[in-house]
Amino acid sequence: MFLQTISDAAGATALPQPYLLFLGDTVEPGFAKTAFGLRDWAPEKCTAEYALPGATVTTGLPAMSPAQAHQAGARALLIGVANSGGVLPDNWLPALVEALEAGLDIVSGLHMRLAESPILADTAARLGRRLIDVRHPPHDIKIGTGRKRSGKRLLTVGTDCALGKKYTALAVARGFADRGVDSDFRATGQTGIMIAGGGIPMDAVVSDFEAGAAEMLSPDSAPDHWDVIEGQGSLFHPVYAAVSMGLLHGSQPDCIIVCHHPGRTEMLGTPGYALPSVEEAIDLNLRVGGRTNPAIRCAGIAFNTAYLDEGEAVALMAEESRRLGLPVADPIRRGAAFDQLIDNCLS
Amino acid sequence: MFLQTISDAAGATALPQPYLLFLGDTVEPGFAKTAFGLRDWAPEKCTAEYALPGATVTTGLPAMSPAQAHQAGARALLIGVANSGGVLPDNWLPALVEALEAGLDIVSGLHMRLAESPILADTAARLGRRLIDVRHPPHDIKIGTGRKRSGKRLLTVGTDCALGKKYTALAVARGFADRGVDSDFRATGQTGIMIAGGGIPMDAVVSDFEAGAAEMLSPDSAPDHWDVIEGQGSLFHPVYAAVSMGLLHGSQPDCIIVCHHPGRTEMLGTPGYALPSVEEAIDLNLRVGGRTNPAIRCAGIAFNTAYLDEGEAVALMAEESRRLGLPVADPIRRGAAFDQLIDNCLS
Fold it and tell me: Model confidence over B226-268: pLDDT tens digits?
């Protein structure tokens, strides 16, 4: 099991596991990305799936009722589907109440808090169950200190938002585990937190506490232990760079991997803002990150090449690797280039 | 009146004015920095002072009861003293209730919210008065857009925290006003907000909204209007840089002034972290700020030279000005160097 809970990071959310994946009445696979992410990255944490009549989406896991799942070991129903607006539909409520009555807590990444539903709040209070909203950070985050912590850390950073920082961190953590390296994936966004079973939603932390939250997320560890930390946003993003800045300072990474989408020309959501080059992103991240860890280095580049065919992607990455003098790999395609990237992180 | 309210910045706190400055039973002038700041920087917003028996600190303003102050035009009692812990002492409560009954709202920068006191909450509700905690940001801050806004902006940035960014911005705003330049001081911390009569406490904003809050703080304005924005923290501070980053991106400054304390060797509160050089601070701030305003430039340096005598300070600033090729001035000492700094901002 390469993904562990982070109950050792005092105060960071530690989720009840394993999960019963709730699919609602979803007919659109795109809305079930959370459930698929859980199945792909934390199968040992997924007992079964549970869908309402009319749902056509499936993860391929066994279908169980909440009572059956509880009997099979599940400890929480996890809402594995998003819906537009982030609000809990009324027709899901009977199933969620059923889960609470079957002995399961509920884990949600929806924008709306679970306890805003009176029937869920009342039922959970009556039965002593937990309603856990992973979009909301813990209340006991402290101001950072800048103190150097023991152990090794890797942070995925980006030229932009939404181009593979979570996926890259998960793939690197798995690569480390495959080589027998003691490591933890440290999650900073809601889907990552569900996969890891814990973490801190860094974009929801008050800015004065941003670096402190990152410090709390990856505490002191054994000298050869690696924390592989999911990056957020980009130092170059005109809207979200505050999140990236605090996460970089507080993470004190020994290694960064720069995640990039070579086919994207404009920053997500901000027309007119060009993506920085990979070299600019390496340079600024090393400069800023060097403030809290002077030994920081860039171990390589993760390209998102889904828009290219295999031959084009491999050729582009080989050319960029020669030009930059660093491993360049697509963590979805894997292959020899990805092995080189993992090797370079550990070298 | 060079300081105006920012009720034009939709949603940013706009405080009821003028104020009756409340001094509690304070005997230590250091605890009354807020009251002195108001007297020095916004005298037109200060009707009178009000102290409890035993107080020895005075601002020199006329002493009035809440009823007298209301009659004289005051619209709020402003708590002008801090106390250790940021909690409201019980022996202040009768005076605060008296103020509400006299028709005044209450403005506080204490950590504790005013409404946590049941008697204040009840009295304010009964009389329809407002209890305003300036440490807490407005609820309607939106995600930023990165869109370029009209008008001119200046931001004070720092090599560290607590070395004169607020004071420099206030002095520059006054210098602009003295030259007849249309400008507003935009406050980002609690004392600044009380002085300006509005603003956003940037360190209390959720990090995802940090740049958006800065965008809201200095909205579109006339082409030759200047917003002079109070800086926070430092891009180099291992704990607070997230605040500085979002504020820099969202402010889109045309000019920065780098604030520095030449006698300080270590970052505030983080042992082992050296201050960056002025050149490093100029370079990184221009690089990061250039992302949202490619025309950004450094107009000069503000030195905090309180630890030097006049001759030493003037000699050091002249030497540094030659070396850096920029005006270097102490906004408390003023003089010709400060005039040059103002000129260079407007050039």
Answer: 999 999 999 999 999 999 999 999 999 999 999 999 999 999 9
- Whether residues A59 and A205 share a domain: the answer is no
Task: Name the band, by pLDDT with cuts 50, 70 and 90, for residue B7.
Answer: very low
Q: Chain A closest CA to B267's CA: distance in Å?
A: 10
B141 found inside a domain: no
B274-296 b/e (C-beta count within 10 Å ≥ 16 → b): ebbebeebbebbbebbebbbeeb
Tell me the three state secondary structure of residue B94.
Answer: helix
Domain boundary among A60, A94, A129: A129
Measuring CA to CA, which residue among B258, B211, B24, B343 is closest to residue A273?
B211
Place of tokens 């092995």: A339
B101, two tokens: 């009954």
Same domain, A120 and A164: no
DSSP state of A272: T
Say yes or no to pLDDT of B19 above 60.
Answer: yes
Residue B219 identity: P
Assign residue B262 the CATH number of its domain: 3.40.50.300
Which amino acid, one-letter code, is at A205? V
Cα B99 to its chain centre, rounded Å, is 25
Name the residue in chain A with its Cα closest to that of B292: A238
Binary contact (B249, A242; C-beta < 8 A): yes
Q: Quote the CA–CA distance of A239 and B209 in Å, as a whole number.
A: 8
More confident residue, A30 or A259: A259
Strand-pair category, A198-199 with A131-133: unpaired
Query: Tell me, what's the pLDDT at B82?
Result: 82
The predicted structure's pLDDT at residue A11: 40
Pairing of strands A13-14, A198-199: antiparallel
Residues A289-331: pLDDT tens digits? 999 999 999 999 999 999 999 999 999 999 999 999 999 999 9
What residues are paired with B79 via a beta bridge? B22
- Interface residues of B toward A, Cβ cutoff 8 Å, are 143-146, 202-208, 210-212, 235-236, 238-246, 249-250, 267, 270, 272-273, 284, 287-288, 291-292
pLDDT band at B13 (very low <50, low <70, confident <90, very high): low
| B329 and B186 within one domain | yes
Interface-testing mutation among B245, B268, B273, B283, with chain A (most A C-beta atoms within 10 A) = B245
- Whether pLDDT at A9 is above 80: no
Q: How far apart are CA A164 and CA A161, in angstroms?
A: 8
- Domain range for residue B98? 17-129
- The amino acid present at A24, given as its one-letter code, is G
Residue B229: strand, helix, or coil: strand
Comparing C-alpha atoms, which of A109, A93, A138 is closest to residue A33? Answer: A109
- Which of B149, B216, B239 should one mutate to test binding to chain A, selecting the residue with the greatest count of A CBs within 10 A? B239
DSSP B115: G
The pLDDT tens digits for B186-205 are 999 999 999 999 999 999 99
What phi and psi values does residue A138 have, to the nearest 5 degrees? -65, 160
Q: Poorest-confidence range of A226-230, A266-270, B5-9, B120-124?
A: B5-9
Cα–Cα distance for residue pair A240/B250, rounded to 1 Å: 10
Question: Rounded to whole angstroms, how far apart are CA atoms A244 and A250?
Answer: 10
* Structure tokens that stand for B38 in this block: 């108001």
Mean pLDDT of chain B: 94
**Count of H-run helices and E-run strands, chain A:** 11, 13
- Which residue did the predictor score with more confidence, A30 or A53? A53
Q: What's the token pair of residue B60? A: 């020199």
